[in-house]
Amino acid sequence: ELEDGVDEAFSRLAESRTNP
Amino acid sequence: GGVGMPTGSYVAPKTVWLPAMKAKGLEISGTFARRGGIIQMDLTLTNKAMSVMTDFAIQFNRNSFGLAPAGPLQVLTPLSPNQTIDVSLPLSTSGPVMKMEPLNNLQVAVKNNIDVFYFSCQYPLSLIFVEDGKMERQVFLATWKDIPNDSEAQFQIKDIHLNSDAASNKLQGSNIFTIAKRTVEGQDMLYQSVKLTNGIWVLAEMRIQTGNPNYTVNENQETWRMAPFI
Q: Is the complex ipTM higher than 0.85?
């Protein structure tokens, strides 16, 4: 469950860096 | 390395650090390598003088990362005129520290039976990237969030004809670890960590657009503004 959260957090980070 | 070659950190070809005309006939060329956590200064000594050279020794001035010889310079037999020898000097990072300009500058003194000679050389910062530099993914996320915006530096690396996986593998050979990879709008975003021998962490984001040989790297670190060297 924790891993899922981390995976998602990286997706959100990459997303936010591409479309700030 | 090409296909099937073992991975490892890049070792630059040797360059002349001390020309013979500046050292009474002693020419020194060299390079640096990190092999399995061992740092080495690889030297070639050439005697271009008319007489035999003996009693070699080496010393470093204090430097940014405390590099110091971990043992004596092993030139066990006299160096005859026109003779060349290769010597590998193991280095530690437990020497005295003083921030150098440029950061990766190393001032070296070499003595022999004729005189003492001084030269400067520069080492690649990857020399001090440690093998356990893969940051925990949660720690990476938390750290990235906490680093102030003005600690971020951006660089373009041009003309890289590797896809993101190949680049990632190659960088791992130099202890630059990819923590996560995401693809957003055709761009691969690689999140990477590096740990230096002095415990400093560097976090990086590398963007690779498919078919574009130019990479963008954003680096985050809080001390010493070392991004350009990394």
A: yes
